[in-house]
Amino acid sequence: MTEIEQQKRIANYLAAFAHLLCGAPGRFTEFRDKVDIMLSGTAPNAFGLMQFASRPQATRRPLLWVYQSAECPTVPQIGLVAQMGGGMHYIENCMLCLTGEDDRATLVPDGFNLGAYRFDDMLDLHHITQASASTFEAADGDMVSAYNRLIAIQADQWERGEVFDLPDLAQAA
Q1: Which of 7, 54, 81, 123 has its CA 20 to 30 A from that of 62?
Q2: Is the pLDDT score of 167 beyond 70?
Q3: Integer Cα distance of 75 and 94 in angstroms
Q4: Looking at the record's lineage, which domain of life comes first (predicted)?
Q5: Apex 115 CA angle, 111 and 119, nearest 5
Q6: Does residue 72 sit in helix, strand or coil?
Q7: What is the CA radius of gyration of the chain?
Q8: Residue 92 near residue 79, CB atoms below 8 Å
Q9: CB-based burial of residue 68 (10 Å sphere; 0-12 exposed, 13-18 middle, 19+ buried)?
Q10: Looking at the predicted structure, is the pLDDT value of residue 171 above 50?
Q11: pLDDT per residue over 79-135, tens digit each?
C-alpha cells in the first residue's frame, strides 16, 4: 500500500469515526473543528493523557486519542481528555456503545462506573453520569453494534470514493 493510499484510509477511518460519534454523515470537517483527534502508535495511558491536558485547556476542544492495535484493528482503544464542569477528565480507555435505534455512539469508560460521554447536535461533548450498561457483559451487544456500524460506515464511504482531509494532529502523529 502506498503512503497516499494509507493516508486516504486513515482519513476515511477518522471520518467514519466522526460520523458514528456525531450521528450523521457529512460533518467530518465540522467535527474536526470542534474535536481534536490524535492517532498514535501506542495505547492511551494516564501519563500521556496528562501531557496533552494543555491542548483542551487552551482550545476548549476535547481530545480523542485513537489507537488501533495490530491484533484487533477494528476495536480501537480510545483515550479522552476534556475540560468539563470546571475540571479535567482523563479517561484511558473508552469503548464505543450504540444502543437500540440511537443515531450516535457514546464513549463509555471501560470500568463502566464513570458514566459516559456523548456529543450533542452542536458537537459539544457532555458527560452522562450513568452509562447505559454497568458491565462489559451487559454492554456487549451495544459495543458490537457500535463497532459493526463503524466498519459499515467506513466501507460505504470507501465504496463511494469519498475523500477526506486528515486532522492536524493525525497528520503530525
Answers
A1: 7
A2: no
A3: 11
A4: Bacteria
A5: 120
A6: coil
A7: 15
A8: yes
A9: middle
A10: no
A11: 999 998 888 999 999 999 999 889 999 999 998 999 999 999 999 999 999 998 999
Q: At what angle do helices 136-160 and 3-22 cross, to 10 degrees?
A: 130
Q: Which three cell numbers stand for residue 65?
A: 486519542
Strands of the 116-119 sheet, one edge to the other: 36-39, 63-67, 77-84, 87-97, 106-109, 116-119, 125-128
- Alpha helix stretches (DSSP H) within 52-165: 54-59, 136-160
DSSP-assigned states of every residue in 37-53: EEE-SS---HHHHHHTT
For 111, list phi and psi in degrees, rounded to 5.
-80, -15
Where do we find the cell 463502566?
Answer: 112
- Cell 482550545 identifies what position? 59
Distance (Å, whole) CA 20 – CA 26: 11
